[in-house]
Records
---
Amino acid sequence: MTPPDGAGPTVVLADPSRPAYERAARDVLEPLGYRLLLPGDFDERSLVALAPECHVLVTRRRAVPDAFFAAATELLSIQHLGSRPDDGVMGWAERLGVPVEATPTRGTIAVAEHAMALLLALTRNVVAGHQATAAGAYRERGLEPQRTSEVDHGFQWLQLGGLDLLHGKTLGLLGFGEIGQAVARMAQGFGMTVHYHRRRRLDPALERELDVHYAELAALIAEVDVLSLHLPHVDTTERLLDEARLRSMRRGAYLINTSRGGLVDEAALCGVLADGHLAGAGLDVFVDEPVPHDHPLLRLPNVCLSPHVGAAPARGLAEMMEQLVPNLDRVTQRRPHA
């Protein structure tokens, strides 16, 4: 089955149209002759209505209803922006005999790496170590620089405290989509055990494949050494980590947030950091951005803060669309573009 002669292949993006998302997709795909369709909202009917014309379905975060696949009689391929489509998409692809390709996005990888960077900065007290080293704080200890050798050196010359290992710790991922799964893989490389919570538990076979363990929300928050947030900021997740939940975290645990600032009650967070209940917090996102210059978080010694740069190494939505072009050309049997 191929697209009709003289007509550009029709690409349907399953996620609803948002101005930046739609503009990036159109700017990349339409000049190459692709016809682009997007649903107007999260109403399933608006997506299903596009199914009969769809040659290539591009999935990202949204679950695709069964009715779409039942009506997608011209479907040639499913392209997923991320590491793995959900089980519903995979099941329909097998039933229809339609190939599925996954394209991990640089933005996902960048945010996951940043979450790990914040955690490492906290557990190895990188910020304080840098500041003290740059300030020449050895003088306060009555030390003088000495030439080093393999045997003679100034190990821990500042007697820096608060150092910890990731190896052997338990990481809890609150939210387990593309970014959460990327963090899990990275953390496992450091020897961490990974627990997760999401609205719909993964199939046990997939849990075994990913080497992760499901936990209910309250248990996850209370039992892990590190809690990393990977949820959208919606009405039901506003201040999800309130004072009660922050106080329920294990004493000496760490909090990492590279998702959205509104997930956390910042006043309560300041309290549990100031009194030492939490060992530290690594934050890339805040309730107000830029974070106000007089915010209490900025005065705490056990935080590592960054100015919402988690996904910055990636070039955003346009780059994601560009990554798809070779796959689209191949599955629609078009010649590569110069």
---
Amino acid sequence: MISLAKVYNVGVAGLNHDHIWGLLKNWLDQPNVRLVGVAESHEPLRERARRDFGIDKFYDSYEELIDGEKLDIIQITCENSKHREITEYAASKGINVIIEKPMAESYESALKMFDSARRSGIKLMVNWPTTWNPAIRKALEMAKDGDIGKVFQFRYRAGHKGPKEIGCSIYFYSWLYDPKKNGAGAYMDFCGYGTHMAGYLLGKPLSVIAFGKNLVRDYIPAEDNAILIMEYEKAMAIAEATWSQIGNVPGENPVIYGSDGTIAVTRGEVVLFLDGKEPKVIPPGELPPYERNAVTYFLHCIENDIVPEGLSNPELALQTQRILSAGLESMEAKRAVSI
């Protein structure tokens, strides 16, 4: 909970992204937020919102929601392929937009979203949930501050045994499995995390090469495993994705390698390895109250009229989408692609 000077009317576009249920709790935890309406056509999802969160005002489309309510903010939690049209419509009405990752299904859509937000002057933010992990934040800041010398490699692996297998809603995994709605398969779902952090740490890569295959979940019409390798002038980064991994491994994730040491995040702790010294556990500390989650930080940015910074900066999200799109091109062409 953070202190706000005004009350903000928030609308939600889509309940068919399972991250929305945690986000709804975050919105409703804020006393200066009024959740005034939800655009969602599936009755079972409406019923869950009624039952679990007391939401009672629904619209069949995002246009009806935006036109029917005086919104300050719209939370977009639907298939990636609809992010652009909702963002452009909201921006045209002067409504601030927060989107659950990734920015869109393609770089072309993401660029149009970025441009529409810039022209209209609204705040635009893409939520990468790892942003609010104190240990990951601490590791990235230590690396940026030079605690391990010059970073030459970054590695992050994300995934699980599959959306259906871990109990995701059919309304969620049905579009995750559709490359037109998602942008790809496991690659778009999970390679973005490592790509986003690598971009924050190392900037835009020179080139990328990516591989994606359906190795286990043969009922899915998309890749269930993928690897994206990013080449820099004097560094490289690796982002891995899986929808078929059994068990919560690896234990160290991410790992950042530098000329003078290594930083690993493991079980919520940051471990620093320096040459000739015993490994040292670094307490990550707590994030400021306004950075506890995407909701508190976005409200902070709107309340103080600042562009989201760091891992939440929309330019970084756009760069991430550009890298992901280049990786898809590499996957199809079976060669490295320059950026």
---
Amino acid sequence: MLQSLFKKVFGSRNERLVKQYLQKVKAINALEPVMEKLSDFDLAGKTAEFKARLEQGESLDKLLPEAFAVVREASRRVLGMRHFDVQMVGGMVLHDGKIAEMRTGEGKTLMATLPAYLNALTGKGVHVVTVNDYLASRDAEWMGRLYGFLGLSTGVNLSQMPHDAKQAAYAADITYGTNNEYGFDYLRDNMVYQMSEKVQRPLAYGIIDEVDSILIDEARTPLIISGQSEENISLYQQINEVPPRLIRQKDEESEGDYSVDEKTRQVLLSESGHEKVEAILTEMGLLPPGGSLYDAANIMLMHHVYAALRAHALFFRDQHYVVQPGPGG
């Protein structure tokens, strides 16, 4: 009862935050006539002024109204697009590390220029994460005109780029790229022998487009860099003989040794399937008589069995992978 009354009087937390943001929007709008009177040279010069103020101890939050007003005016002159008040609110939400929901066509790309510019003033770099290379290239070229006018550099990080080009892209004030490429670059940077070989700088600030897809849906797929295994490959060859001796279930109710979930791309052994696999591995000499796949010592065997099952049931040659001849033919 009291909580409901409090909400009616003071509004929800979200409503209170929006009210705070709208107060800042009023301050930004009040600066618009001042910015309109500046010459292109003076407007672009605001970037150097903001950087100097940051070095003197002023915070980004203190600079926000002026910085947003500068970006709005620069966008109007360079791109012919003026940020709406709701885009200003969205920019503040992103600057605060929160999620802003906007429908397609409401100007997410333009809105992102506000917090991207503000945080790029620190010189530590800003990463804008998109869902594919096309959007990364398009947005970097499109919004790069705005950043360039204001004296900031823009880079685009694409797959298959040369090492030097990647380092240059990450050295830019604002870098556009896909979540997978950022992730793989991070993994590759942790495999280098010398610090000079790294492409990424220390991470500072990022903006993620389609955040639900990238941080929830795609997060279920791990980023893995594989290489030549140092293990004895004979175990893989032996385990590879197990799946053909098992029977796949037609559905959950039917008899069989394992089931396949095409949607989640998972394979699950049935109880009878476990027993059958244990018997086969015992026959091969990989499992001691009476041994169980559930024993701690046999965890790796279980991993190999499931890997072999997935390879046979879910991955098909020339569809999910290709086999190319080596140097010897």
---
Amino acid sequence: MSIYRRVLRYYQPYRGKTILGLFLSLIGIGLNLLKPWPFKIIVDDFLRQTPADRGDWHTWVPLLCLALVVIQFAWGIINWITNYLFVKIGLEALVKLRTDLYSHLQRLSLKFHDARRSADSSFRVAYDSQSIQTIYNKGFTNIFASVIALIGTFIVMLRLDWILTLLSLAIVPLIVGAIYFFARRIRSESTSIQEQESAVLAQAQEGLSSIRMVHAFGREDFEVRQFHQQAQQSLQANLRLTLTNVNSALVISTLMVIGTAAMYYVGTLHVLAGTLSLGSLLVFSAYLLMLYQPLESLTYTAWAMEGATAGAKRCFEVLDSQDDVRDSP
């Protein structure tokens, strides 16, 4: 069974709450898509050169500005509710996994515990278990919201100007390729970090638990050197992951800027040719940002999922361990 399917099993009791949260997310996405339109109406209908063409702007401009405030406030309330709901569900599932891990460790034989450091088991219960919340909050729910936002934004952009839309999407395959390339490296480096952090905790716990023996034999300097060496290895692992994240962010942000610059150039030509209004270009720019934001969110989601998968794998390794000392029937 895949790691993601095993993680989802912990969220089956919260299926109803999850569906409610996803439904509220759909409402929030719809409100977010409405945000640019009041300003578009103001630009196209009331910011014209001749006063005769502006209409009753004294009435409509304040109403449109008020509509923008109402849309933003409603979106904020929906976003607040969904965030709280999803975080609460994730924390409840985290408690369940931690309890399962601790309960299973209590049932395993002394042979199992003698074969590994107790600090490593503690690290898996306290820290690796948090991966189940990351996979849910930053993974499944975020992927759903980002994909729906992408589809909705794409449809609206097509109706505004299909040429600009296709031009803006030309970089998407490159972005997806970059995500796939860096995701594999992030998973392996995240696994290395968790192993090194567990080793640092184990080194500290063992050194402090035997502090009387260390003082008795004058091994303080040796213990410090051992801990420093382990901490250095953890530092190098974190630096490798940081460098990978920085490089990937640089590549993806550069691709997005290239797509934005191309859209501005072609969009300006369309406005000068009279095939696109200025308000529509401004709205299209806002939607382009909305299009790239889910793409960027999916990028970080993919990296977070890779790191969390490494932690979840370490948790399920414990749960899959069999007790080799069984009670007689």
